[in-house]
Design brief:
This protein is mainly β. The protein is 0% helix and 29% strand. Strand 2 and strand 3 form a beta hairpin.
Length: 116
């Protein structure tokens, strides 16, 4: 039997609940969905084109829908790692994002600025 992988589920925090789902088409990664706050709801969507990260959607309101998009840095691969750092003053995705209502959203905080 030649089974093709179409989905992979992972439990990244070892709480017996899946919190990361990888989707494949023709054995190639096309999307990753992530529950980054471990509340059993997907809140990040990564889309891949030609084996490279293309865009990332975020649910920042808890609605279950994307309300902010970032473009991947040039050269980002399936791990999401950029080939080079984004220029200073840009979002991690290297673009201006849009908030609900079409207003420009403030840049995403750097990891050091995020409080847990």
């Amino acid at each position: 039997m030649n089974a093709k992988k179409v989905r992979e589920e992972l439990d990244t925090n070892y709480d017996s609940q899946s919190d990361l789902w990888k989707y494949y088409e023709d054995e190639k990664l096309v999307r990753i969905e992530r529950d980054s706050d471990f509340n059993a709801r997907v809140d990040e969507w990564e889309y891949y084109e030609g084996g490279k990260l293309d865009r990332i959607g975020y649910d920042t309101s808890g609605s279950g829908r994307v309300d902010r998009w970032d473009r991947a840095p040039a050269g980002a691969d399936e791990t999401g790692a950029p080939a080079e750092a984004a220029p200073a003053g840009t979002t991690p995705g290297g673009t201006t994002t849009s908030a609900p209502g079409g207003a420009a959203a403030p840049p995403a905080p750097t990891p050091a600025a995020v409080k847990k």
